[in-house]
Every structure is written in structure tokens, then in C-alpha cells.
């Protein structure tokens, strides 16, 4: 069963750039039938989709975050990454990575990593 | 963006009860509707995809239905382990969006 694991700093200062990585346990990241997503959830609130990338590197971002987001993929290392710039306290959240399949589902999720933006 | 409105936002009910959660979308989304279950401190888990297809391993007391702009998740007989927050998600068009969640508790 494929597993996803997020990694990155738990504390970032305001105005800085957050960098997170999601490592995929199998070779599914090399196939073009899946896409790879970042989603976040502030404490006690709902889920917000940040964006996705395909194995060929093609990204798509949520327009609400587009000016600050970069999502990339490295299939040789079986991982994809999120960069979010110009951080403020409102970016404090649990960040999840997830595998998407067609327009059917996001079937596999990482356990999530908590990111706090604070000086 | 397609807005998803879940109702109710909170539900207090008893073991064995039938539970129905509704997700209304601001536009027609075909059958590209997914339901997730999220327990405290855990990642969301797929229950139902493509409106009504049960994810492998999910108990048959969970079912999904709907069309157009109104979709429902039904738990036929609530069990203690079903205490969680339930989210709907549309995959019809970008940006992908989620409902606000429905928290289910036991009376």
C-alpha cells in the first residue's frame, strides 16, 4: 500500500518562505494517471486545496494562493514539493499531501505536518 | 470557484440512528463528488467517490447519492467509531473545493 510522508519545518517566521516535501513510497509518482496535491487545514477549520502537479511537472494552483505558491516534482527521488512565500499567521495550518486519481478521488493522504508561522 | 455548502455543520445523534449529511454545490458538477471522514488528529480518509461508489474496505452502512447540485452521505446505523468530521469535495473543475465539514457526535 503506497504511503505519503510530509517533511519540513514546523515553525517559520512571518514573511519567509515555507518549503515542504512529500515522499512517495512507491513508483506511482512516475505514472501520469495520478496527480499530486497539497491541501491545508487551519486548526478547527475546513480543508483548502493549494494546488497539484503531474509527473511531467505541470502544475495548477488555487487562484487564491497562486501568486505565492510553487509546486514541483522530482520523480527520480519519488517526491514532490511545496513552496509558499510571504508567510503570515493565516498560513498556520496542518499541511497534507495527497494522491489524486482522475476526477474520482484523492485516495492516499500523508499524515499531515503542522506548520506555525510566528516570530 | 464552485462553492460547497454542507448541512448540518454539527450533528448530535445516537448509536443506531440513521444519519444524513447534505452537500449542495453552487454549480452542476456531474458525479465528481467525494466524501471523506476525518477523525481528530488524522488525515481525511475516502469513504465514497464518484458520488456513490464505496471505497474498498469502507463498511456498507455508508452510502452516497445525489445529482445536479445536491448530494447526500448516509450512515444507515451510526456506530461509535463513526464519530468524526465528514467533508465533501468536488473534483469537477479547478480549483478543487471542499465543503465546510459536518461534525458528528454521540448524544
Structure, described:
The complex is a heterodimer of chains A (119) and B (107). Chain A is an all-beta fold. Helix content of chain A is 0%, strand content 52%. Chain A contains no helices and 11 strands. Chain A has strands at residues 4-7, 11-12, 18-24, 34-41, 48-54, 59-61, 69-74, 79-84, 93-101, 105-109, 113-117. In chain A, the strands form 2 sheets. In chain A, strands 2, 4, 5, 6, 9, 10 and 11 form a 7-stranded mixed β-sheet that branches. A 4-stranded antiparallel β-sheet of chain A has the order 1-3-8-7, with no helix packed on it. In chain A, a hairpin with a 3-residue loop joins β9 (93-101) and β10 (105-109). The radius of gyration of chain A is 13 Å and the shape is globular. The mean pLDDT of chain A is 96. With 107 residues, chain B is mainly β. In chain B, strands 2, 4, 5, 6, 9, 10 and 11 form a 7-stranded mixed β-sheet that branches. Chain B has a 4-stranded antiparallel β-sheet with strand order 1-3-8-7, with no helix packed on it. In chain B, β9 (84-90) and β10 (97-98) form a beta hairpin. Chain B is globular, with a radius of gyration of 13 Å. The termini of chain B are far apart. The model of chain B has no long low-confidence stretch (mean pLDDT 97). The interface between A and B is medium-sized, with 23 and 24 residues.
Strand and helix layout:
The complex is a heterodimer of chains A (119) and B (107).
Chain A: E1 4-7, E2 11-12, E3 18-24, E4 34-41, E5 48-54, E6 59-61, E7 69-74, E8 79-84, E9 93-101, E10 105-109, E11 113-117
Chain B: E1 4-7, E2 10-13, E3 19-25, E4 33-38, E5 45-49, E6 53-54, E7 62-67, E8 70-75, E9 84-90, E10 97-98, E11 102-106
Parallel strand pairs in B: 2-11
Antiparallel strand pairs in B: 1-3, 3-8, 4-5, 4-9, 5-6, 7-8, 9-10, 9-11
Largest sheet of chain A: 7 strands, mixed
* Tertiary shape of chain A: globular
C-alpha-based Rg of chain B, rounded: 13 Å
**What would the average pLDDT of chain A be, to the nearest integer?**
96
Element-by-element helix/strand order of chain A: EEEEEEEEEEE
Low-confidence stretches of chain A: none
**Which structural class do you get from the secondary structure elements of chain A?**
mainly beta
Give the ordered list of helices and strands of chain B.
Answer: EEEEEEEEEEE
Low-pLDDT regions of chain B: none
- Which pair of chains has the greatest number of interface residues, and how are they split between the two chains? A-B, 23 and 24 residues
Helix fraction bin of chain B:
under 10%
Q: How does the overall form of chain B come out from the CA principal axes? A: globular
Amino acid at each position: 500500500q503506497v504511503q505519503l510522508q510530509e517533511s519540513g519545518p514546523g515553525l517559520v517566521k512571518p514573511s519567509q518562505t515555507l518549503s515542504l516535501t512529500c515522499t512517495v513510497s512507491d513508483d506511482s509518482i512516475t505514472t501520469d494517471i495520478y496527480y499530486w496535491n497539497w491541501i491545508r487545514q487551519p486548526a478547527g477549520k475546513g480543508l483548502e486545496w493549494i494546488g497539484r502537479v503531474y509527473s511531467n511537472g505541470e502544475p495548477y494552483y488555487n487562484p487564491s494562493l497562486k501568486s505565492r505558491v510553487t509546486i514541483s516534482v522530482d520523480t527520480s527521488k519519488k517526491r514532490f514539493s511545496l513552496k509558499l512565500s510571504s508567510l503570515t499567521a493565516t498560513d498556520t495550518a496542518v499541511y497534507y499531501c495527497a494522491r489524486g486519481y482522475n476526477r474520482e478521488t484523492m485516495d492516499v493522504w500523508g499524515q499531515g505536518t503542522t506548520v506555525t508561522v510566528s516570530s | 470557484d464552485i462553492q460547497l455548502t454542507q448541512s448540518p455543520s454539527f450533528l448530535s445523534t445516537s448509536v443506531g440512528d440513521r444519519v444524513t449529511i447534505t452537500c449542495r454545490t453552487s454549480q452542476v458538477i456531474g458525479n465528481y463528488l467525494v466524501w471523506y471522514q476525518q477523525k481528530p488528529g488524522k488525515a481525511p480518509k475516502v469513504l465514497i467517490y464518484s458520488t456513490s461508489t464505496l471505497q474498498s474496505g469502507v463498511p456498507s452502512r455508508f452510502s452516497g447519492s445525489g445529482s445536479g447540485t445536491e448530494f447526500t452521505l448516509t450512515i444507515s446505523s451510526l456506530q461509535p467509531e463513526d464519530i468524526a468530521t465528514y467533508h465533501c469535495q468536488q473534483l469537477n473543475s479547478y480549483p478543487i473545493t471542499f465543503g465546510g465539514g459536518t461534525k458528528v457526535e454521540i448524544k
